[in-house]
Amino acid sequence: MPQASSTIVSNTANLQKYLSLPQGGKVIAEYVWIDGSNGLRSKSKTLSKKVEKVEDLPEWNFDGSSTGQAPGDNSDVYLRPVAFYPDPFRLGDNILVMCETYMSDGKPNAYNFRHDAAIIFKEHSKAEFWFGLEQEYTLLDEFGWPYGWPKNGFPAPQGPYYCGVGTSKVFCRDIVEAHYKACLYAQIDISGTNAEVMPAQWEYQVGPCPDISLGDQLWMSRFILHRVAEEFGVKVTFAPKPIPGDWNGAGLHTNVSTKDTRAEGGMKAIEAAMEKLSTRQAEHMAVYGSDNQLRMTGKHETASYDKFTWGVANRGSSVRIPRAVAAANKGYFEDRRPASNGDPYQLTGIIAETMYGKVDG
Ligand code: ADP
Ligand code: MN
Ligand code: MN
Ligand code: MN
Ligand code: MN
Questions:
Q1: How far is the CA of 162 from the centre of ligand 2 (A)?
Q2: What is catalyzed by this enzyme (predicted)?
Q3: Of 93, 107, 288, 312, whose CB neighbour count within 10 A is largest?
Q4: Closest Cα to atom 26, ligand 1: which residue?
Q5: 185-228: per-residue pLDDT in tens?
Q6: C-alpha of residue 129 to centroid of ligand 4, in Å
Q7: Hey, which CATH number is domain 22-111, 3.10.20.70, 3.40.50.20, 3.40.50.300, 3.30.70.2190?
Q8: Ligand 1 pocket: which of 214, 255, 312 to mutate (most atoms <8 Å of CB)?
């Protein structure tokens, strides 16, 4: 094991004076993409003027053999910008750019799950999907142990931590606050945040966002979280069951509505969706995140990995209909199955496909 090093890995106070230097009219675009192991990568590009629309952004490329996305003898992978956001780190006209990845033959990269999802949402645009995702995650110290937990030991059992306040109940609220503000600055539709049941575990919600934009915004919010935590010398993990035993896992509850479910009497459309979801349990679980069977034990507010169930206000079922939705007879449903490391493009895509039908791509 490497020797414990100082936790001070950078000096943000010194950085401040350089961040405010004028850029001579140039703009920095941080191109962000998803790599070959469900992680994020980025690199910076100087542009000659302010970007007004996504078409202003040039295509770019990277070495896919260094990210597990391409073989060494055909390593160029192309970056195609799909959305951009104000950069909360560099400020000014600088931007964060979400990209899709393509191979030299024009086919999407094997890890480009946005490509198929975008086709599904285009085909089913009349459904007017909205998604709101609850992203849970865990903060780890430099040794990979949950932040603030006793070294070589465990904190007191779960109970006081969920939405907790006070020393020894919550850890790293500074990171959570910084991430919240940075997302708002970036114009991410972050809708809230809360401390979770396991200490050092947190949640934030993104949405409701229409169609493919949920995936774009959620991935960018994850990038911002990693980037903020890096400045604090803290690691973010999206592992669905970071600590085995009597500690809650981490999920990505996916709240779903369509024009029909939101309309008067929309409960009927929700029930029809439940009927469809119940026939494709295995296919959904296949794209709802890796290691999810470790989390979906039927305990700790989860359902069975193998069997689809749904119910009003039931946090032990695959899908929960919020009590208020049942009372209003319209609204949305909450798919509680996705793991925290699930790909939002894949999981919103398969939900749309299951409810409205496959699309020939
Ligand atoms: P929970 O009670 O499960 O913890 P949260 O408040 O964390 O619920 O998250 C619920 C999320 O549902 C909200 O953040 C929002 O994004 C999403 N949501 C609300 N209304 C809709 C809707 N009509 N369609 C899709 N998602 C919705
Ligand atoms: Mn180089
Ligand atoms: Mn929640
Ligand atoms: Mn939660
Ligand atoms: Mn939830």
A1: 46
A2: L-glutamate + NH4(+) + ATP = L-glutamine + ADP + phosphate + H(+)
A3: 288
A4: 132
A5: 999 999 999 999 999 999 999 999 999 999 999 999 999 999 99
A6: 22
A7: 3.10.20.70
A8: 255
Bridge partners of residue 311, in order along the sequence: 320
- Confidence (pTM): 0.96
In this structure, the chain runs to a length of: 361
The contacts of residue 73 (CB under 8 Å, 6+ apart) are none
Spatial separation of the C-alpha atoms in residues 137 and 175, rounded to whole Å: 12
Q: Domain ranges for the chain, please list them.
A: 22-111, 121-356
Listed in sequence order, the residues at least 6 apart from 104 whose beta carbon sits closer than 8 Å to its beta carbon are 74, 76, 78
Q: Predicted ipTM?
A: 0.98
Q: Which of 266, 243, 68, 268 is nearest to 147 (CA)?
A: 243
The domain 121-356 having CATH identifier 3.30.590.10: the answer here is yes
CA distance readout (Å), 1 to 145, 258, 360: 14, 51, 51
Average pLDDT over every residue of 224-242: 96
> How far is the C-alpha of 259 from the C-alpha of 352, rounded, in Å?
13
Eight-class DSSP state of 108: B
In which residue are the tokens 């073989």 written?
71
